[in-house]
Amino acid sequence: MTAILDHLAIGTPALTDGWELFGGVLGGRWAYGGDSPGFWWGQLKFGGGPKIELLTPAGGPDAAFLERFLATRGSGPHHFNFVVDDIGKTLARIRAVGIEPVGVNLSNPYWKEAFLHPRVAHGIVIQVAQQTGSPRVPAPPELPKPGPPTSFDLIEYRVGDLAAATRLFRQVLDGQLEAASDQSSELTWPGGKRIRLVHEDGLPLGGALHHIRFTRAAGAFSTGEKERTGLLAKRLGLRVELAS
User: Fold this and answer.
1) N or C terminus: which one in the chain shows less Cβ crowding within 10 Å?
2) Are the C-beta atoms of 24 and 35 separated by less than 8 Å?
3) Range of 165's domain?
4) Quick one: pLDDT at residue 134?
């Protein structure tokens, strides 16, 4: 059984800022997306690292979870997604460490999923999913022409219990431990996907995303791109670091 970090999902009431930041500035290319009950989602892929998924409510009773999130917290990181090759074995592994998954839905042969609540996942929703095939949906017309390519090469996540968070991402979600100290752990997955866990006390629900980093291999980010990134990221409830 394997679990691979697939994407970071960001909830937002409007998609314009996300398209401009992750597509127009950071060079994200359309992967796929579509309508789901209560929300619309779309994913952008980069030269390396996980994808970014943008989520926006579409109305109706099924939108309540996302509308509640946005009303309480505003735009911001909603969940980590891990794609697994056998969700039955993944659920057994989760339960073996004393965590009971929620929202388990195995009825769709193309998309079977379950979630870890933020209270047991160090402050953020974690989604595990077994996927068969990908939806073929054209890119939205509002998506700008991609900027120069980048790699999404780091998620830095702050946690109150570093040892427990490291166990979760390593033993349950198959992260490869690359470096560890009393204050931090770095875990990787195939394709240049990396999460750095850093200890910090006093965080709501025991954890919070600190920043994400994008690297441009060819050429530096301009002053204008850095300023635009800072503005758009703030609107999306994020902190984005740019590196050359």
Assistant:
1) C
2) no
3) 151-243
4) 78
Identify the domain boundary among 79, 103, 131. Answer: 131
Tokens at 28, concatenated? 């994200």
Asked whether 101 and 116 are in contact (CB, 8 A), the reply is yes
Q: Count how many domains the chain has.
A: 2
Nearest to 51 by CA among 76, 72, 23: 23
**72: CATH:** 3.10.180.10
Tokens found for residue 118: 């933020």
The whole-angstrom separation of Cα 91 and Cα 55 is 25
Backbone angles phi, psi at 226, to 5 degrees: -65, -40
The C-alpha angle 144, 147, 153, rounded to 5 degrees, equals 115
Locate tokens 């946005």: which residue? Answer: 70
Q: What's the rounded mean pLDDT across residues 27-50?
A: 96
DSSP H or E stretch at residue 120: none
Say whether pLDDT at 136 is over 90.
Answer: no
| Helix extents (H) in 2-158 | 16-18, 64-73, 87-96
Q: Partners of 58 in the beta sheet? A: none
**Residues 169 and 107 both lie in one domain:** no
